[in-house]
Design a protein that fits this description.
Helix content: 40-55%
Number of strands: 10
CATH architecture of the largest domain: 3-Layer(aba) Sandwich
Largest sheet: 7 strands, mixed
CATH class of the largest domain: Alpha Beta
Structural class: alpha/beta
Order of helices and strands: HHHHHEHEHEHHEEHEEHEEE
CATH topology of the largest domain: Rossmann fold
Number of helices: 11
Amino acid sequence: MNAQDFEFISSLLKRRAGLILTADKMYLLESRLAPLARKEGLASIDDLVRVVRSRSEERLIADVVDAMTTNETFFFRDKTPFEHLKDGIFPALSQARRGSRIRIWCAASSTGQEPYSIAMMLDQNPAMTGGVPVEIVATDISERVLERARAGLYTQFEVQRGLPIQMLMHYFTKQDDQWRLSERIRSQVSFRKLNLMESMAGLGKFDVVFCRNVLIYFDGPTKSDVLGRIAAQTNANGYLLLGAAETVIGVSTAFEAQHDRRGVYKVAQKGVRAA
């Protein structure tokens, strides 16, 4: 791939998905776009780029973005955020939202392990929220991974990553060489397609937002913009949970760090606009 084609694709990814691709990642671009070129019946990545340039076809552009999106996830990933949810966030919200409901948004949810982890955790201990009902909404930019998430069908490798054996046996059924999550748990999560670069207003307001291991792919201004718009969708005294390598400090004033809970942030009391 020549420098001009790399610049074209990297600009496209930045504009459409906020993804930052530096020159040292050309190998990644080539390895992920080669299968898409073959799928399209094209001889090379150069031909794929040429077609994308000439046609500006939304379906093909979406496929390019999808191919470059990282979909790494697993059940109860990093454990600590779920402990914060159980031990601190749910008890606080159960008092504040009594007579209403608690709404949770899992942004960039990929194949669904994160929202399903929350659903299983709640199913095992319904008293965790003091009887306050919980709604879980999960979104992703990729319709391909959303289809997998809705199906709730996982490989042996996927269910071995973070999922306790007791939960595997209780909530999953063996289906050939894969495992199917029970319909009861799947029905507790609503999956929707959403690009974080676009309007979030249609989702409504939330009490808890999981946006973990997403900001690491954005540059500073994009992080600030996304955080500001997430804050606008978060209720007063609502919570944001980020990945271990992410922070709002120095990026946005829309949220305030909870120093006793690493990776947990609350909507800033004065304003919700990003810095």
